[in-house]
């Protein structure tokens, strides 16, 4: 399978690229021009199946290059690496390129609390998001004051409103470091609290690409088993 990955140096995107390459997929990966690869050997170890596209986030021509001849797109924007106010414009540019190249399958990684799952956002994560938001405002990088959760929710709505897309939305709990364990719960019901490693989020995203039954659905994923 040929997979385009949008998420730069975000933790989930990094793990998804490595796992996809190890599984034998061809990967196109968009990163910023100034980004440094987590493992410099990636390009030498997988020269025939890894295409790294270095580009600013708003270069539409590079999105065309990213998705051309791909079977699916994995979008995993991380607010620690991508400014939240860029989430929606990126999604619009990406979907325009997907329509142009007739790419219909997309996995969108957002977060607990997005869209109709808002009541599952626990207080610890809420505080973290709001602290991040205060830092953005204090540094003058966000005007007006954007809510991180609302940007993920808007991303989801754009994907849901696209008639031609075959989407699966994944809403991970608090994302942590750690290995892929495969022991997480993925449920269309709401999961309260919990956490999950970025490696397992990537694992779930790649598995979702193989299951057509997951199309047009949103799943909460976490190690927690507390389900609504």
Keywords:
two-stranded parallel ribbon; 7 helices; globular; 228 residues; 10 strands
Report on the structure:
The protein has 228 residues and is α/β, with parallel strands linked by helices. Helix content is 35%, strand content 21%. The protein contains seven helices and ten strands. The protein has helices at 11-22, 42-45, 60-67, 87-100, 123-138, 148-161, 198-208; strands spanning 2-6, 26-31, 50-54, 72-75, 105-109, 166-172, 174-176, 185-187, 195-197, 217-222. The strands form two sheets. The protein has an eight-stranded mixed beta sheet with strand order 3-2-1-4-5-6-10-8, with helices on both faces. Strands 7-9 form a two-stranded parallel sheet. The protein is globular.
Question: What structural category characterises the helix and strand content?
Answer: alpha/beta
Shape, per Cα inertia axes: globular
Spatial order of the strands in the main sheet? 3-2-1-4-5-6-10-8
Task: Report the sheet-strand fraction.
Answer: 15-25%
Strand/helix succession: EHEHEHEHEHHEEEEHE
Low-confidence stretches: 141-146
**Count of individual helical segments:** 7
Strand tally is 10
Helical proportion, percent range: 25-40%
The first-to-last residue Cα distance is 35 Å
Q: What composes the largest sheet?
A: 8 strands, mixed
Radius of gyration, Cα only, in angstroms?
A: 17 Å
Summed over residues and divided by their number, the pLDDT gives a mean of: 86
């Amino acid at each position: 399978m040929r997979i385009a990955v949008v998420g730069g140096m975000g933790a989930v995107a990094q793990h998804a690229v490595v796992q996809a390459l190890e599984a034998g997929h061809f990967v196109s990966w968009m990163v910023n021009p100034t980004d440094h690869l987590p493992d410099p050997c990636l390009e030498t170890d997988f020269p025939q199946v890894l295409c790294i596209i270095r580009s600013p986030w708003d270069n539409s021509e590079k999105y065309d290059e990213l998705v051309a001849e791909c079977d699916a797109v994995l979008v995993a924007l991380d607010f620690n690496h991508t400014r939240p106010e860029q989430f929606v414009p990126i999604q619009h540019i990406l979907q325009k390129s997907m329509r142009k190249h007739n790419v219909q399958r997309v996995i969108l990684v957002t977060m607990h609390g997005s869209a109709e799952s808002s009541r599952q956002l626990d207080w610890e994560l809420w505080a973290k998001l709001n602290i991040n938001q205060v830092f953005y405002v204090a540094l003058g990088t966000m005007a007006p004051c954007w809510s991180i959760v609302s940007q993920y929710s808007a991303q989801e709505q754009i994907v849901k409103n696209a008639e031609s897309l075959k989407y699966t939305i994944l809403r991970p709990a608090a994302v942590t470091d750690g290995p892929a364990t495969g022991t997480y719960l993925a449920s269309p019901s709401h999961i309260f609290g919990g956490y999950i490693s970025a490696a397992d989020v990537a694992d779930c995203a790649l598995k979702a690409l193989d299951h057509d039954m997951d199309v047009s659905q949103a799943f909460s994923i976490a190690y927690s088993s507390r389900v609504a």
